[in-house]
Amino acid sequence: MELFYFVVFGALSAVVAALELSKNSKDRITTSPAFNSFKNNYLVVYSLMMAGDWLQGPYVYYLYSTYGFGKGDIGQLFIAGFGSSMLFGTIVGSLADKQGRRRACVTYCIMYILSCITKHSPEYRVLMVGRVLGGIATSLLFSAFESWLVAEHNKRGFEQQWLSLTFSKAIFLGNGLVAILSGLFGNLLVDSLSLGPVAPFDAAACFLAIGMAIILSSWTENFGDPSENKDLLTQFRGAAIAIASDEKIALLGAIQSLFEGSMYTFVFLWTPALSPNDEEIPHGFIFATFMLASMLGSSLASRLMARSSPRVESYMQIVFVISSASLLLPIITNFLVAPSKERGGSISFAGCLQLLGFCTFEACVGIFWPSIMKMRSQYIPEEARSTIMNFFRIPLNIFVCVVLYNVDAFPITIMFGMCSIFLFVASILQRRLMAISDKPKMESWTAMDPESEPLND
Prior knowledge:
Helices cover about 75% and strands about 0% of the residues. It is mostly helical and about 450 residues long.
């Protein structure tokens, strides 16, 4: 069965290489040298930021366990991270619109570096502080950088279609290639060089520091709504009004929460799904395979978004249906394939089928990220971009906290079934978004704000 992993990895590698090498003029967007320079600068920074994030992921649970903490204590640390992202991260992330997106990106680097430093302490309270800082940083990572990019892209007068090129390349590199290399580098530090489980966190801090230096030296500041008379509560109220008054924004938020909630739940479920009887599976190699599948998806997305047809709103309906079907595989195999009763050993036949389904889901994830970024750039008003994007993460973080708290309370098939239903609902909402996507955009932020002053007396 070990050969199976290499066959899947090799097949995905071949397909990704073929897709990238076979692109023709229809699959490419003609741009300018000025834009290419701007895009490459952002991609370098984004890749460094994602390297800082990916290096930590595989070793957080392992580090806590080496400090002697049990599953319950570790679960509380994870919940604290998502909880702080929901509570404090929403506030800090929303300040980016008013205080500046570049400043928020620098704050992300500082927060995450401090979080990495706390990993040197075996004290539970210090580790809890680190999780809170990490939760805040996560909110900034998934809002401030995209908000800065969109505003700066528009400020420099680049064509709107070129944004999709930056989005797809950012996911291809940051969520694909960088993730794979980070996993290999982390493995080198911990296993090959025997530097201990804290070493990846120190390496992550170094990458974040390099990225912060590039931001400080080459990025200009941009704002959402810098009005002096608007406090944070007014900003929240305005964002809530924007979501409630524009069905497209509300649908986009619901779609994002349903998909990302299912995606984060999948992160906790794939290991027990593939090794229900403690089968020996190569976690690092499977993770790299998933990231390769994500690269395949982002490569497909770049081709799709380079063309005028089909539209993003159209093909994402299909993507959500496919992702929903792929997470049904654990339930289907549970009924159709007789479960093995042997403990240990290599991956079962049912596990092989599920791995193929999970790779399909990860390919959908690769298509989802650049596509949702493009839709957000089209529908979310610039003045409140960071605030609204952090609002979208509130139900997501609540959902993940609930799942983490009850992860042992339900059979794994029930959890996968729930995720599959959520993804199918996302496809229905996407169909509705497609139907109303040609409606005029919402009125301006200033006109919507109940506390804004009229331009003329």
